[in-house]
Amino acid sequence: MKPATAHPAPAAKGADAPAKPRLTTSAMIASIAGEGQRTKPAPFGHALVECAKTDPSIVGMTADLGKYTDLHIFQQAFPDRYYQMGMAEQLLFGAASGLAAEGFTPFATTYAVFASRRAYDFIHQTIAEEDRNVKIVCALPGLTSGYGPSHQAAEDLALMRAIPNMTVIDPCDAHEIEQAVPAIVAHKGPVYMRLLRGQVPLVLDEYGYTFELGKAKMLRDGYEVLLISSGIMTMRALEAAKALEADRVDVGVLHVPTIKPLDTATLLEACAKPGRLVVVVENHTVIGGLGEAVAGLLMREGVHPAFRMIGLPDEFLAAGALPTLHDRYGISTDALCAQVKGWLK
Amino acid sequence: MTISPSNVSLERRAWNIRRHAIRMGEVQGQGYIAQALDIADVLATAYFHAMRYEPQNPEWEGRDRFLLSNGHYAIALYAALIEAGIVPEDELETYGFDDSRLPMSGMASYTPGMEMSGGSLGLGLSIAVGKCLGLKRKGSDSRVYTLFSDGELDEGSVWEAIMSAAHYKLDNLIAIVDVNNQQADGPSTSMLGFEPLAEKLAAFNWFVQRVDGNDLGAVRAAFDAAKDANGGRPSMIIADTLMGKGIPFLEARDKNHFIRVDAHEWQLALAALDERKPA
Predict the structure, then answer these.
(1) pLDDT tens, A111-151?
(2) Which of A211, A234, B163, B183 is 20 to 30 A from A335 (CA-CA)?
(3) Which domain holds residue A68?
(4) What is the CATH number of the domain that holds A80?
(5) For residue B86, which of B51, B121, B120, B117 has the smallest C-alpha distance?
């Protein structure tokens, strides 16, 4: 059964209704960057090329999505180290396991939906169970496509963090992706990393931020509210914190790019500060992602702040324009601000 | 370096593999013994005619790789690894018990000489494609042997790998499909028809041979041709086999994926095998 909220009936147009711009469905290659936002092109592809210059074990593999995962940058630099596997995701990850078993470091790319859903058993068995050094890098994480559930990986983090041996990373911006790529090369073992491709926002360089695998970082402190976030939601959380500052609400932002293993020490310390509302914000279903991971940690360790979660609902999400969808499902900057203010009343 | 030339016949190697397998079945009181008996001739040929390896150094870089996609055939591969001297013979007493290196379904991290974790069927050929690409990238002349079962032909991933191996002209891949025509719910050909298999695979640009998988001479010739006459293509050996081969009362038993062997029958099976000991 389709959830009632997925396809709301078009509102009847009143004669005097102000004309709103009609937003088109967000294209597959749409940038999530806001208007006027600083960006960098293809940070993953360029960072991988840099690593591959000194590490001959790195090979690139994809399942008919090289251009859509910025792996074409690697292909252009190292054509003989690039394997086009065709639109066959099970093969892609099985073959990546085989190449890793022979000593190579495959970066295997596709969309997050196809890795986490279609090829799950191949990742589970041939990569994670065998503990192969494969880096799975996936575009269109969470709700970053307007094409509907076929392309919306609302549950990829839940699926991936449930697999033993798997390291799971949700980077925020181009600055972080550039640093995460060499970090996951240095880490021996399977990694699932969410990918932002194309013109990728540049945010964290302004915060003097450095990515460290397994580390959460406080980007700004605040005594009333702590937003805990990963991926693009950290960008939104920082914007929300600035907006709320104007309303005299003091908001901190703790960025948790490594979903697994969690930086439990930093999280516990940050959540133990008395009198602060803790809100986990994620571009992911509220089931099984960062929110529940943090909630479980706090319960187990007896740390009990006022706690809320902002994430995608347990529904098949609608198709349409991303700004519309992010508003509707509560993960736009405006929606973040409204929810936080509501909880502070 | 390869294994030392031996005067032991392939017939005797296959007989020894069957005997090790039956002993493991007796130890555990269960096991995929009918499959082990049907594939013993293929494994004897792989390990004592075709493949290059060092028994004392199962991770030797120059070895040929053997992938067991159908992990439930582990009892058969353990028997071959014991016969090859990679696993000590007395370890068969631990088969299937807690903390054994020989679990009921084969896994890479448990057993020396086990190159992949099978069991979830349809994985092996995809891994093989990656290993073959990797070996070529390294300039290695090692080959990848991959055993899988006819039931696995139902899995779409197998056909992804079949297309890919031909696309990349992986002439260092030798796949063997055990056509015993039995999978969990019944005869494989009645589950999801895969015939005409040889013609299909040839159309997929593989070098295909179909042999009686229990005729050692034919199997040996097929392994030789797969290495030397593949025409730059991946090789498929379709091995038609008889479940329970070598033990008449098991050959005659109603065919089943997990064949029932009563407690007293393991000794009967050993006795039947011993009556047929080759030179």
Answers:
(1) 999 999 999 999 999 999 999 999 999 999 999 999 999 99
(2) A211
(3) 39-201
(4) 3.40.50.970
(5) B51
